[in-house]
Design a protein that fits this description.
The chain has helices spanning 22-28, 44-59, 76-86, 142-148, 172-180, 210-215, 219-223, 229-232, and strands at residues 33-38, 64-69, 92-94, 99-101, 107-112, 129-132, 160-165, 190-191, 198-204. The protein is an alpha/beta fold and 233 residues long. It has a nine-stranded mixed beta sheet with strand order 3-4-5-2-6-7-1-9-8, sandwiched between helices.
Length: 233
């Protein structure tokens, strides 16, 4: 991804690159559906946003993405980080529509599903990219499945579903059952029995985010205040 200097290609100046390990694997993974999950501080949000921005520059107006969280308040940090990454490459933020507009015409909308029934409002929509942050905040997979069904592209863009998750939360069990129990170590290709589409789990560990380790070495100590011993582990 690149900067937005006058008379420069938006991709000419590198402003973000994936760290070695899971972030790089997320960028390389060709599989239709990926859960990038695990420890807090693993750099998951950054990787998802940067992936969306990269695809927006690649596919231009054919890129139509949507980024979900459970509640509107929870979107604030992701939007702020999106501004850090997207504005330097020439994207524009449309506050009323909660949408980034990219050079070339691609767009990434931010939305929330506070109630499972809210997913009904997206029937008939078409997206090339669907992103869910903190998938375990969703008590069931019902609304998530409805949004998967919006993935389609008349322009031939390879559609993707990407999600992040931390342990815990009301949806912990269904997320664990789908993604983690079949492949505890991650990276194994799984096949959805209903769609025959492949999916996989990329595990994120705190140690993978080397920048956080270097810039905030006390973060691990503060994580111990998160709750029970099992949750902290």
């Amino acid at each position: 991804m690149g900067g937005s200097e006058q008379r420069r290609d938006p991709a000419a100046q590198l402003i973000w690159k994936p760290q070695p390990g899971p972030q790089t694997e997320l960028f390389r993974c060709p599989v239709h559906e990926v859960l990038y999950g695990g420890a807090r501080g693993g750099g998951k949000t950054d990787a998802m946003l940067a992936l969306a921005g990269t695809r927006a520059l690649q596919y231009k107006q054919a890129f139509v993405g949507i980024f979900f969280r459970r509640k509107l308040k929870q979107l604030e940090e992701a939007i702020a980080r999106g501004k850090d990454i997207f504005l330097p490459i020439g994207a524009k933020w449309r506050e009323q529509k909660k949408t980034f507009m990219f050079p070339g015409g691609g767009r990434l909308k931010f939305a929330y599903l506070e109630r499972d029934a809210d997913a009904e409002e997206y029937q008939g929509h078409n997206y090339t990219d669907v992103y869910f942050e903190e998938l375990t905040n969703f008590p069931s997979d019902g609304p998530v499945n409805k949004l998967r069904a919006t993935l389609r592209s008349a322009s031939g863009v390879p559609c993707i579903f990407r999600a992040t998750a931390n342990p815990g939360g009301p949806g912990h069990q269904w997320v664990k059952n789908r993604y983690i129990d079949p492949a505890p170590e991650g990276y194994r290709l799984l096949t959805d029995g209903e769609t025959d589409l492949q999916y996989t789990f990329i595990p994120a560990k705190l140690k993978d985010n080397r920048l956080l380790w270097e810039n905030d070495p006390q973060y691990t100590s503060r994580l111990k205040q998160a709750g029970s011993e099992n949750l902290v582990r």
